[in-house]
């Protein structure tokens, strides 16, 4: 583009411009290229015995490879797939995996080592210089190509018959749309799917470990309980998708320690229920600090204060964990008093 | 038959049949024109340098990945249907897992050699991406990307990026707890995209996360779409390497117009062919002794469970760093949320990669050099380029540290908050420091080269002069060394020149010209390269009375 304004003399001289007459140059130019150094013989080039030794080494390596392949087949047949052995320093490992990998590795490595040793000691190591040719075409070739192109373009009438040209561009632009349209059924529209979870009024909090509904007395200060909504079972076909939104963590905090007023009202005697799904990018939060009531997401270390509305106190999360309003039903079980008021999990454009 | 033979070998050996190999070659030549191809390539010269092996490691690990990958497809079921596990791994009996996980367990515990192939596949993938990055750095620091190789640089860069995503879609396939967490992270990042984020997520996952589709979709991306593109790029990359011929370092007899080395047949056929087996052999041994992605210890994916110390495969670590150290900015306006805390890292992620990819084009604009370059630079002789490369690597490693902040915290007993803050600051500061320091080091090395050329090398011999003074004898360099140390090119900075001509008429200087002059000064100005010694300087010093 704008390189014309850099004068030629600004560019360093061609590296080999002045080195045509190499031999007589050194008196004038001590830095001149002395040309390829003379070939230095290897021991194998001058001593046939050394060459023989190399030959035997290479043959030995190839033979070793053959032995290793036989050993590979033998291990495949000999070791049962579930045999565990102790091998220092790797510990208790699969005998089959270890022996197959080792023998395969040796079989392959020896072929490589043999070939490289052969090349390095026995094949000619005389350096040869090959000419390079410029990548760019000569002006004559370029002129011929340009002529051919102009001729072809002229014969097609592409420039002259504008109607053909424009309709062709139109057709070619539109036809990929079919492919794009076909992608529509890759998935449903988002609608308000991300705003709802399985929780609703009256759904019991079911302990994930015991699969029993939770009573307030089950939740002690300092413990962390993971809950799912009543009726959601592991064998349900959409269990994974539902639990990805509905996962809940329940802790008990002394009511006086709860700093946030709304939080206290949504809790039951200090038992608070928060979404387990991090508001950063959706990892499940699983680390709970009993003394401070901080929870930490192990993926990206977002830290939330459960005694203060689960607001973010460190890390990359952008907003507090949504709280689920809970109470106790007539039978004394903890129940949800509705769905989450705001979407759980990572933020998105329509969240607002 | 006989008439054909008399045609090809008329007088010399009348009636004798050509050897079988030759006849096969004749047959192929008549249909494929192989003799023309072989004439140009059979004795093609390749120069020797250890760093030229790096690209070979990429090629070979790619071949290993394809071979082992095809084997794995024979046993893997890319389905997310939930089944009860009843394989031979006892602790997991009866657990609900996806078919993808189930078949990966089957490969690992019930198929003889399946675990080995799985581990070779995964190890080779890690090595593949690592080798591509190191190979790219070799090309970068030696200036091998310069004309005529810019297009090949771009091909290589695309291979690196595609390799990263092929790796990501690959390690997500077993549907284990660790990789599922990574997929969740990706989905959360996609949700942050303004306006279309939720749509992209729904379309990619066939509904809400995780749904029942992503393993099958990632599977076709992982085994067909991306590797197909990569195979095409790889072939193009290799064709260009052959077409341009290899670069070489300066040295006696090596010029910009030749290539010095040994021929493909036999030396490189044996060395490069043998190297494939060396790479394969080493990876096989690694897979025999070092377990990788032990999904039986990690367990199947559940969106409400996670393990601590979750880490992606290393090449995704820098994106992990971006997402971990970014402050959680969220802007809520008019009922919409702009999730900057996630979206900004998502934008910087490709920019980190693109910033190194576009460098060759910036440098060629600054130098305005349109000639072909086949002689490699020693990194010290291109201080600004080298400093930029080191700054970029520093940036990359700072982000890797950020991506592993929990690992650093637990292994070195450090505060995770302190590490995060360190990375936040170092993200901006460390590359600048690295740039300045590297440039000084390069200039220092240039000075040392100059000193060596003019004053010879230290011989270690101490001589006592008649009047009692001790001096160290310096030995002059051989002409080979003198040539090698002075063979590099040095540019002059581009000057804008007078902005008014002799008649006082002002000349228009565009902003881009000014920028280029400034950059050029930064590259080649007085303090930014050490003028290499001239023959006159050398003669003046060496002609007179010895030197010390």
Automatic annotation (TrEMBL), chain A:
Subcellular localization: Cell membrane
Gene3D superfamilies found in the cross-reference section: Rieske [2Fe-2S] iron-sulphur domain
Residue ranges of domain Rieske in the record: 245-335
Transmembrane regions: 58-81, 93-116, 163-183
Region annotation Disordered: where it falls in the sequence: 1-39
Domain of life: Bacteria
Biological source species: Streptomyces triticagri
Lineage: Bacteria, Bacillati, Actinomycetota, Actinomycetes, Kitasatosporales
Keyword Disulfide bond part of the UniProt annotation: yes
Similarity comment text for this entry: Belongs to the Rieske iron-sulfur protein family.
Assembly behavior: The cytochrome bc1 complex is composed of a cytochrome b (QcrB), the Rieske iron-sulfur protein (QcrA) and a diheme cytochrome c (QcrC) subunit.
Membrane-topology descriptor: Multi-pass membrane protein
Main location: membrane
Name of this chain's protein: Cytochrome bc1 complex Rieske iron-sulfur subunit
Xref: InterPro entries: QcrA_N (IPR045603), Rieske_2Fe-2S (IPR017941), Rieske_2Fe-2S_sf (IPR036922), Rieske_Fe-S_prot (IPR014349)
Automatic annotation (TrEMBL), chain B:
Database matches in InterPro entries: Cyt_b/b6_N, Cytb/b6-like_sf, Di-haem_cyt_TM
Residue stretches spanning the membrane: 52-76, 120-141, 153-173, 185-206, 218-243, 272-296, 333-362, 382-402, 414-437
Cofactors demanded by this protein: heme
Keywords, alphabetical: Cell membrane, Electron transport, Heme, Iron, Membrane, Metal-binding, Respiratory chain, Translocase, Transmembrane, Transmembrane helix, Transport
Catalyzed reactions per annotation: a quinol + 2 Fe(III)-[cytochrome c](out) = a quinone + 2 Fe(II)-[cytochrome c](out) + 2 H(+)(out)
Gene3D superfamilies, sorted: Cytochrome Bc1 Complex, Chain C
Main location: membrane
Single GO biological process annotation from the record: respiratory electron transport chain
UniProt domain Cytochrome b/b6 N-terminal region profile: residue ranges: 24-250
GO cellular component entries: plasma membrane
GO molecular function: metal ion binding; oxidoreductase activity; quinol-cytochrome-c reductase activity
Mode of membrane association: Multi-pass membrane protein
Record carries keyword Transmembrane helix: yes
Domain of life (superkingdom): Bacteria
Location of this chain's protein in the cell: Cell membrane
Listed EC numbers: 7.1.1.8
Residue span of region Disordered: 1-20
Record has Transmembrane as a keyword: yes
Name the UniProt record assigns to this protein: Cytochrome bc1 complex cytochrome b subunit
Lineage: Bacteria, Bacillati, Actinomycetota, Actinomycetes, Kitasatosporales
